[in-house]
Amino acid sequence: MKFDFKDSPVIRELGASADNMYRLGWNERNGGNISILLDDEDVLPYIDPTKIIRDLPLAVEFPQFAGRYFVATGTGKYFKNISRNPENCVGLIRISDDGKRSHLLWGFSDGGCYTSEIVMHLGAHKERLAQNPDHRVVMHAHPTNTISMTHIHKWDEIEFTRTLWQMCTECIVIFPEGVGVLPWMVSSSPEIGLASAEKFREYRILIWALHGCTVTGTSLDEAFGLMETVEKGADIFIRIAKNPNRSTGIDSNMLKQVAQAFNLTIKKGYLD
Ligand code: 2HA
Ligand code: ZN
Fold this sequence. Notes:
Layout: H1 9-23, E1 33-38, H2 40-43, E2 54-56, E3 69-73, H3 86-89, E4 90-95, E5 102-107, H4 118-131, E6 137-141, H5 144-152, H6 157-167, H7 170-174, E7 180-182, H8 190-199, E8 205-208, E9 212-217, H9 220-240, H10 252-261
Parallel strand pairs: 7-8
Antiparallel strand pairs: 1-3, 1-6, 2-5, 3-4, 4-5, 6-9, 8-9
Helix pairs in contact: 4-8, 5-9, 6-9
């Protein structure tokens, strides 16, 4: 008798993250999604991988993930319900041996499917894993201040990054590589998924103008920490943007001092 996968550490931590994200106002209704690349030991104590419930459609092939397991939140599922009903809101999949299909092994108990942003998720996993073998998590949300900032700030990656860094001292320490920014595009399409994947070659954080933010990490904590630090910077930006008494903030000279003190590698053009 196997243990129940819904009681596994992966599903418990996923539920706890979803609750925190919901309470912070980042994930209204069914907004946002999370996926985690799993190791065999996360899955096999709970699941018999030969027992396929059904296949789920995969618009893009991912041969590099043949035989790998992922959990992902489901399309249309409300974030506020994930921890209370993970078996309905979350699915465990195994990518088929040819990388062309995905087999549902657990979850989506009402006949559901994974997030409509699955191509972006798998593309982000692919690119981040190539950068860091410990990479595991992709997290997408609609944090209010980050979206608000894209309404009034230029969608230029260097300028957007620098503005966030100028808001509070920790920003440059937490994301010294900066943030990627994509102009507005129709969401949930293979096009935005593939354009995003390209950005994840360079960044752990990607902002979709007028939509939201996606972060990646080696753990749910790391991804969550990136999201909340970006959102903190954006929150301060929104509070001070129209204030006639605002200072110049943390200027390039101050940022260079932080970079030196924390031994940060800053890309050319970001502080010059
Ligand atoms: O509805 O966030 O981007 C889920 C989404 C789509
Ligand atoms: Zn979204």
